[in-house]
What we know:
Elements: E1 34-36, E2 39-42, E3 48-49, E4 52-54, E5 59-62, E6 65-70, E7 72-73, E8 76-77, E9 83-85, E10 90-94, E11 96-102, E12 107-109, E13 118-122, E14 132-136, E15 144-148, E16 154-171, E17 178-187, E18 190-192, E19 195-197
Parallel strand pairs: 1-4, 2-5, 3-6, 4-9, 5-10, 6-11, 9-12, 10-13, 11-14, 12-15, 13-16, 14-16, 15-16, 16-17
Antiparallel strand pairs: 7-8, 18-19
Amino acid sequence: MPNPSDPLANLPKPNVPACGTSTGTPYFGSASALNINGTAVLYPDGAYCGGINIKPGANVTFMPGTYVLTSKNGSTTKSPGGLNVDLGTTVNGTGVTFYNLGPSGGVTFGFSSFTFGGVNLVAPTSGVYSGILFFQDPGNTAQATIIGSSSWNTVLEGAYYFPKGKVVFALDGPANYNILVAYDIEFAVLTFGSTTLTSGVKSNYSSLANGSPVGGSGAVMVQ
């Protein structure tokens, strides 16, 4: 039986800034769960304590950088934490990494319609987190759900790293590359009307200064 090592185990954890104090857009972090219903611009300067929840009809822009998401503010739980993107949203961010510290709250992506423009998030092309879009702390075992399709204008370009979490995955977006590393993976097949959503993996790393963040080639699946 193969016994592969974690190919991203040496990825350093980012510094965790203090919780933000913003109460309106533009946001520079937040002190409690941030629920966005309208138009907003977010910056990575402060931690998002309580996580980010993007509701239907919202139009959100993430400026470049590393976003720290946590469900705690000191000793106080600010649940649910994590990053949750709902149906019918417009979300854009280039050069972004989301670090989900936890200790609870996962990453959840719904499926975006043409009406609202879709979700387009692209990892940095250089630096420490080159090619890394989602990075969940090894101490956080929360489940992630990543569902999207080119039919719904979903682009999630980068590596999805959940070393101790389960990922429910169904994504066929038009990204140049994507990498999934997780403790447990459930590949979903979803049907909506005449559309059947399956998973696709791309491997064009030409946009990354140092190529793929995962060394070597090929893949190993262990049950």
